[in-house]
Design brief:
Layout: E1 7-13, E2 22-23, E3 29-30, E4 34-46, E5 50-58, E6 66-72, E7 89-96, E8 104-111, E9 118-129
Length: about 150
């Protein structure tokens, strides 16, 4: 097994139209079978600050999400929320899913009310699988090439 292929990518929000004064519609992350999750948020062109950027968790799919301590940008002791001048920067969350962590994760990202708004895309990479994915679909890909 090649370790760099033992992962699953979960698209959380695709590149889409600019967002202004709204939260991103994000897909939920089901961590079943994986013991680690990295969440990446790519902030492209923006003219306004992000007002919320955090990861939440729940034992139940689709409800009961609560903030994960330590995974809230702008909280005491955490890096500041992205500002209106943070164009083309990537932000990350690194989550050990063992030790009582709840099964379902969700990204909360809210763009402030600007003149135009912001372009934002996000995805997660699940790793340290109990059973390694061995097909493109199991890795969350439409197709893949090897050389």
């Amino acid at each position: 097994m090649i370790q760099t292929q033992a992962f699953k990518i979960v698209p959380l929000t695709p590149p889409a139209a600019i967002i202004d004064n709204a939260s991103l519609a994000t897909a939920e992350i089901d961590t079943a079978g994986f013991s680690y999750c990295d969440v990446y948020v790519w902030l492209a062109a923006t003219d306004i600050a992000i007002t919320a950027l955090k990861v939440q968790e729940s034992d139940v799919s689709g409800s009961g999400m609560v903030d994960i301590t330590g995974l809230v940008f702008g909280a005491t002791g955490a890096p500041a929320l992205p500002s209106a001048t943070d164009d083309n920067k990537l932000y990350g969350f690194h989550i050990d899913c063992r030790g009582g962590r709840k099964r379902f994760l969700d990204l909360v990202a809210t763009v402030g009310d600007g003149t135009v708004g912001a372009f934002v895309a996000a995805f997660a990479i699940l790793s340290r699988a109990a059973e390694a994915p061995n097909t493109a679909a199991e890795r969350g890909l439409a197709a893949e090439l090897f050389v």
